């Protein structure tokens, strides 16, 4: 036997080794318990992250659906605006034609007819003068 390995029954040296073995056993037990708690915390954290990921994916899906709905609404309104612009152009042309005929008829009959010109604001409605008013926004504006 080497000097570090002595039987547990050899007097006070054996008592010391028994105490060291007991401390080593308790430390190993404590380390195992600590590792078990650490694994448990890690597992709980992983579960929380998976739940958060699921919630974020659900929210992302909802937002993508809302964005898609807004895009569809925009395309619908844009198409309607194009139709209205074409109708406005046609009606403007008709009005100018009728005004021209009215002037011709008035000149032929010697009558004075005051036909006002079509205001530019009607021909370009997107440039209408608008009073400056505050725009109020709320969370309800984005609900569909």
TrEMBL record:
Question: Mind telling me which Pfam families this protein's record contains?
Answer: bZIP_1
Q: Which PROSITE patterns match?
A: BZIP (PS50217), BZIP_BASIC (PS00036)
Q: Where is the BZIP domain?
A: 21-84
Q: Which CDD domains match?
A: bZIP_plant_GBF1
User: Where does the protein principally reside?
Assistant: nucleus
Q: Where is this region: Disordered?
A: 1-44
Q: Which Gene3D superfamilies match?
A: 1.20.5.170
Query: Which UniProt keyword terms apply here?
Result: DNA-binding, Nucleus, Transcription, Transcription regulation
Q: What domain of life?
A: Eukaryota
Where are stretches of biased composition, namely Polar residues? 1-10
- Tell me where it resides: Nucleus
List the biased-composition ranges (Basic and acidic residues): 19-36
What is this protein identified as? BZIP domain-containing protein
